[in-house]
Structures are given as structure tokens and as C-alpha cells.
Design brief:
There is one protein chain. By secondary structure, this protein is mainly α. The N and C termini lie far apart (73 Å). It is built from 3 helices and no strands. One of its GO terms (biological process) is protein transport by the Tat complex. One of its GO terms (molecular function) is protein transmembrane transporter activity. Belongs to the TatA/E family. It is a single-pass membrane protein.
């Protein structure tokens, strides 16, 4: 069914959506989508930094457990 939608069909759908919701509502919705994507990317980066910090902390101490007891 959706395989045969071409450029004219997409333009018609865009016009109908614009008429139904109005330009202001669509722009505010796209702004919220943009904020959500930005927040998601920020969360991914923070999680990756946290994992890197944990890996760095475990990599710092390479002394075997039995030698730690001797010190």
C-alpha cells in the first residue's frame, strides 16, 4: 500500500497535516522532537563517559591481590 506513494502523494499528505494542525503546532512539535534527540544524545555521552571513568579506575590498580596484602 505505501510502496506507491510518490512525491505528489507526500506533498498532499504534508498539506493536509499542515491544514489540520497549523504551522505553529507543527513547529512546536518539531522543537520538542529536537529537544528529545539532544537530550538522548547527551544521556548517551554521559553514560559513555561514566563507563570510561570506571574502566580507567580499574585499569589504574594492576597490583595482584596477594601483593596488596603484603604491603
Amino acid at each position: 500500500m505505501l510502496n506507491n506513494i510518490g512525491l505528489p502523494g507526500l506533498l498532499l499528505i504534508a498539506v493536509v497535516v499542515l491544514v489540520l494542525f497549523g504551522r505553529g503546532k507543527i513547529s512546536s512539535l518539531m522543537g520538542e522532537v529536537g529537544k528529545g534527540i539532544t537530550s538522548f544524545k547527551r544521556g548517551i555521552n554521559e553514560g559513555q563517559e561514566e563507563l570510561e571513568k570506571e574502566a580507567a579506575n580499574t585499569a589504574k590498580d594492576v597490583t595482584p591481590e596477594d601483593e596488596k596484602d603484603k604491603v
